[in-house]
Prior knowledge:
Layout: H1 2-37, E1 43-48, H2 49-68, E2 75-79, E3 82-95, E4 99-104, E5 108-128, E6 131-154, E7 160-178, H3 190-221, E8 227-229, E9 234-237, E10 245-246, E11 250-255, E12 258-261, E13 285-290, H4 291-304, E14 308-312, H5 318-327, H6 329-335, E15 344-350, E16 355-359, E17 362-375, E18 383-401, E19 404-418, H7 422-427, H8 432-451, E20 455-456, E21 463-473, E22 476-485, H9 489-504
Antiparallel strand pairs: 1-11, 1-13, 2-3, 3-5, 4-5, 5-6, 6-7, 8-9, 9-12, 10-11, 13-22, 14-15, 15-17, 16-17, 17-18, 18-19, 19-20, 21-22
Amino acid sequence: MRRNVLKGTKVGGFWLRMTSxxxxxxxxxxxxxxxxxxxxxxxxxxxxxxxLEMLKFETQKFVEEExxxxxxxxxxxxxxxxxxxxxxxxxxxxxxxxADLRFLPDVGLLFDxxxxxxxxxxxxxxxxxxxxxxxxxxxxxxxVNINTALNLIRDQEGQLKINNISxxxxxxxxxxxFTGTLGKVYDFLASFLTTGMRFLLNQQICPAxxxxxxxxxxxxxxxxxxxxxxxQYIGIDYSLLSDxxxxxxxxxxxxxxxxxxxxxxxxxxxxWAVDPVIKEYERMVYLALSExxxxxxxxxxxxxxxxxxxxxxxxxxxDLEMLLRTTYFAAIMMLNPVLVDAPLSLQLAVTSPPKTxxxxxxxxxxxxxxxxxxxxxxxxxxxxxxxxxxxxxxxxKVSMKGKRLAVxxxxxxxxxxxxxxxxxxxxxxPLQGPLKTMLQISxxxxxxxxxxxxxxxxxADGMDFIEEVVEYHNGxxxxxxxxxxxxxxxxxxxxKISAETHNVV
Length: 505
């Protein structure tokens, strides 16, 4: 009896421990899932209903072109002594006057066509009793209603994608006008023919639109950069972090918005920045960028080792060179009097990744660097005269042109101090002004010449920002703009297809 009790106790304890372990695993799994899902975005884009209004025109034109290319099979039939064959069906005109494109919350987009019309022509061959007749038939489909919902998702690569399309197409009625020798005689047969034609047309509309969306439009969405090179040093990751957030007024996309060093793509900066927030709806499109977006770029450049510079020869202002020789004359003489006429250089090396701070007053970038004063005796190793720390702060003005984001820097604050002693720091005071001028003349233009190239934001080819307005917030910036199509939707898709064909060839 006691043995059974002990056995039951052990079994009960075992299951209790197993249950506890399972609960712990489930808890940790849910926590890790929450942590992964909570990755903040470095870049966000909002398309508003005003932007959708412009997209509606391009979408309507694209749908009309797709439906115009519908091909229908040859139609044959027999009813008593009446036999017919219909070929060469062509859509001659579409009137999608009552078309609308709007957001479908939690799904994507809804393209809705109500009470529109389609004009067709097709060739007939008819045998009725002993009469044989051929000719063309002009038909019109009226009360055309097409309801198409596009489900937008993030695919496995972080790309925006149309995952599914639901479509319902209905034609209320169809009329036909016969021409030819026996046209009037066969008017009574119009309803017979148009019933079959309406059925066939109904069957063709949705497959055509599904193919257009899932194949052609998705190929165009592939032109939006996800992970691409910026230059020979760094790349940028614009992968979506989640499915788009769709409300009745907007479609919001949250991108990673992170730069990375090409030589070490996995060595990236952790995003601890403020999550950017877009509250506005007045313009067609909004772009929000956090401090992390800019910091990751400077972190990647820092890891690539490009924040180093030697100022020597023609880059060295003559008055600065003279001042340096005067300041360090005693040190030169103590080292070796022969070095008096040797060339001087300043070696600048940033010691840590620059840090961005964005406030309502604007954006600044703080940079700390080591500046070494070097003698360059011909045929000998460089000789270090001094080492000082330089702390600078730049004003950063963000601008947008087309699809490219650029930054212009202006030197705001400058400070140097010695790494050896406070006494030497006092001796460096006369160098403050000339060194600041040197930075403004020699270094800042190089920085701006580099940053004015800009980096592309995640928009499809053929779409550009215009009339941009930049607003600074605490921790992020928001750029509101209107959209401009430099190419139509059809051209954008065909451009993508031709580019792929060219690459294959």
